[in-house]
Amino acid sequence: MIVSYLGIYDRIRELFANCEQAKNLKLKSSYFSINVKGGRCEECEGTVKVKVVSQYFADTYILCEKCNGERFNENILKIKYKGFNINDILDNSINNILEIFKDDIYIISLIL
What does the chain look like in DSSP terms, one character per residue? Predict the structure, then answer.
């Protein structure tokens, strides 16, 4: 999640929370975080993988079947910013993020 390392994740969560659909559902920016209950997938806690404990073999991890590796619950994934949901943003490259948020001076100033 490059957005965390760049210091722009807080701003991105704010932008998602300010989308009309998110406002109608009274979703706060914290719902777009994998660190907080409410918006993240609670099965994998936003990590995309679930630990499978085995008595005879080493523990292993599998892709979360509840969110299919998309980190968030369905309500959160329905919220779109410029056609992207929050998981799309988290999985995107820096070049694509620059293009998506090119009109946001705060984000651009932190990246460049």
Answer: -HHHHHT-HHHHHHHHHTSHHHHHTT--GGGG-TTSTTTB-TTTTTSSEEEE--SSS--EEEE-TTTTT--B-HHHHT--BTTB-HHHHHTS-HHHHHHHTTT-HHHHHHH-
pTM for this entry? 0.89
Length of the chain: 112
Buried b / exposed e along 80-99 (16+ C-beta atoms within 10 A): ebeebbbbbbbbbeeeebee
Q: Per DSSP, what are the bridge partners of residue 105?
A: none
Count the alpha carbons within 13 Å of 67 in the hemisphere toward its beta carbon.
Answer: 25
Predicted pLDDT of residue 111: 83
Predicted local distance difference test score (pLDDT) of residue 4? 83
* 77 in Cβ contact with 70 (< 8 Å): yes
Average pLDDT for residues 76-102, to the nearest whole number? 96
